[in-house]
UniProtKB/TrEMBL annotation:
The chain crosses the membrane at residues 26-44, 56-75, 87-110, 122-147, 159-179. It comes from Roseibium limicola. Keywords: Cell membrane, Membrane, Transmembrane, Transmembrane helix. Coiled coil: none annotated. PANTHER family: INNER MEMBRANE PROTEIN YPHA-RELATED, OXIDOREDUCTASE CATD-RELATED. This is DoxX family protein. It comes from the Bacteria. It is a multi-pass membrane protein.
């Protein structure tokens, strides 16, 4: 019995190493980016669209709804009048938050400046969660708790799962099938000629 267990272990390890060597430079980073795209890309784009102002210049002038979503207590304190809020810092915060919902997910999916974009997205999700809890006063059932045995809480469980592929990308990078790798290869070739 010991011989069979040892043989199975060696076969398992050998096969796993072959698979790992064949995929480790491209598949995990690509898979993390595809999971992010599949689960969150459209979510953040739609959320960003709700924050745009009217017309072509709406990208530079967020809607009142953007202030209500990003700075709910400050917006309420202004009497729901955006014109009463100075651009610095409030308008700049809302503008940056609106742009982040378009720019960061796009960069992550393309694999462009992936580590810093993923870190930015983790911070964005953390701030979004903080605002939901303190500014929008979501109820405890929606927040949930870690290790509570309820995998359907919209914040604790889901946002932890949102952050995992981003954390992987921060630590391991986007893999070879990315613009980072393409641009990095071009930069290294240029350095060789100078």
């Amino acid at each position: 019995m010991g011989f069979l267990a040892a043989w199975l272990y060696r076969v398992h390890t050998s096969v796993a190493l072959v698979v790992q060597r064949a995929t480790m430079t491209w598949l995990p980073g690509l898979a993390a980016r595809l999971v992010f795209a599949s689960v969150l890309l459209v979510y953040f784009y739609k959320s960003g669209l709700t924050k745009l102002g009217d017309g072509v210049l709406g990208i530079f002038m967020p809607s009142d709804g953007a202030y209500a979503q990003i700075l709910p207590q400050i917006y309420e304190a202004s009497g729901y009048d955006v014109s009463q809020l100075p651009f610095l810092p409030y308008g700049a915060i809302v503008l940056a938050g609106t742009w982040a919902e378009f720019i960061l997910p796009t960069m992550i999916v393309l694999g462009l400046f992936t580590r810093i974009s993923s870190l930015g997205m983790i911070i964005f999700i953390a701030v979004m969660t903080y605002v939901d809890i303190t500014g929008h006063h979501v109820e405890a059932a929606t927040i949930g708790a870690f290790f509570d045995g309820n995998p359907s809480s919209l914040m604790a469980d889901q946002r932890l799962l949102w952050i995992f592929p981003l954390l992987f990308l921060v630590l391991q990078g986007p893999g070879k099938l990315s613009l980072d790798t393409l641009l990095g290869g071009r930069m290294r070739r240029r350095e060789l000629y100078y």
